[in-house]
Design brief:
The protein has 108 residues and is of the alpha+beta class. It is built from four helices and three strands; from the N terminus they run ααβαββα.
């Protein structure tokens, strides 16, 4: 039995999402893709202070949890945000933070 098995699926999913968002480069990539309002074909590292290799690794992580889509277009990849996944992420975090609101204003 792994220690992760001690936690329910919802807790594990939320932790995986939080882990994927835990790097400022990934936040910057998501913000950049959102600001473009279209799929990006080309090198995102031209717009961020990161090397191509670093951006590629972060894109891989974001794609693995489904926040972005990536398609091969010739010799390049096209990336864009997955609208449904982003909305789901917002809902998941809103639900979580709504459920842990302190009931007592007088706390330590």
């Amino acid at each position: 039995m792994k220690k992760l098995d001690l936690f329910n699926n919802q807790q594990q999913e939320l932790a995986n999402l939080a882990k994927a968002l835990s790097h400022p480069a990934r936040i910057a990539i998501l913000q950049y893709l959102a600001s473009c309002n279209t799929c990006i074909s080309g090198n995102i590292s031209d717009y961020l202070p990161l090397s191509r290799t670093t951006v590629s690794q972060h894109l891989k992580e974001l794609k693995a949890i489904g926040l972005i889509k990536g398609e091969v277009e010739g010799l390049k990849m096209r990336y864009c945000l997955d609208k449904v996944a982003i909305e789901s992420l917002g809902s998941t975090f809103n639900t979580f933070f709504g459920a842990i609101q302190p009931q007592n204003e007088e706390c330590c």
